[in-house]
Write a structure and sequence with these properties.
Blueprint lengths: L19 E3 L3 H10 L2 E5 L3 H18 L9 E9 L3 H7 L10 H4 L5 H8 L4 H7 L1 E3 L2 H13 L4 E6 L4 H6 L1 H8 L2
Parallel strand pairs: 1-2, 2-3, 3-4, 3-5
């Protein structure tokens, strides 16, 4: 928490600022629906999103008297694109520490220790939890998988070895995935 002396917001929003509430498992997703304006989740198996996370979010929204059809299902996912698939996978290794449950159980804070744990994560685990692709077509397929599961708002983090290539590829992707 922060305390500010004599702070004043001169330009205030004209509308209420929507609250994106994080929900991963069934309990969190239901609470997100009850207390948030929109769902914010992270990459999970599309079947889990479609059959657990989103239904629980909508259940919570209905219990709170909200219309779930007016609420976004947003997802944060890291991606990496490179013409060499193995390099694309390794581009996401930076985030692999987030895939080690003990990191949270034992509250690891030292970045060097996080990196040590991340280096132990198998490449298959990275492939399962992040988007790794060699071209726009593969990225489009990944985005469509999540859209089919009910995600309608994406927050994509670029971990591509060539950051500019990871941005430029969206010239092809955006027209293909927007309705």
């Amino acid at each position: 928490y922060f305390t500010l002396d004599k702070a004043f917001m001169y330009t205030k929003p004209t509308d209420e600022v929507p609250l994106y509430f994080s929900g991963l498992g069934p309990k969190g997703a239901k609470l997100a629906g009850m207390y948030g304006d929109h769902l914010m989740t992270v990459a999970a198996a599309p079947s889990v999103l479609k059959n657990v996370t989103i239904p629980k979010f909508e259940e919570g929204a209905k219990e709170a008297g909200k219309d779930p059809s007016k609420m976004e299902h947003a997802m944060l996912i890291w991606y990496s694109v490179d013409t060499d698939y193995d390099k694309a996978v390794e581009g996401n290794r930076f985030w692999a520490g987030c895939l080690v449950p003990s990191m949270f159980k034992y509250k690891v804070y030292d970045p060097k220790e996080v990196q040590l744990h991340a280096n132990l994560v198998h490449s298959n685990t990275i492939k399962e939890n992040y988007m790794c692709a060699t071209n726009a077509e593969e990225m489009i397929k990944e985005i469509e998988r999540f859209k089919d599961a009910g995600i309608n708002h994406f927050c994509l983090g670029n971990s591509s070895p060539n950051v500019n290539a990871g941005i430029d590829i969206f010239k092809e992707i955006i027209p293909a995935v927007t309705d």
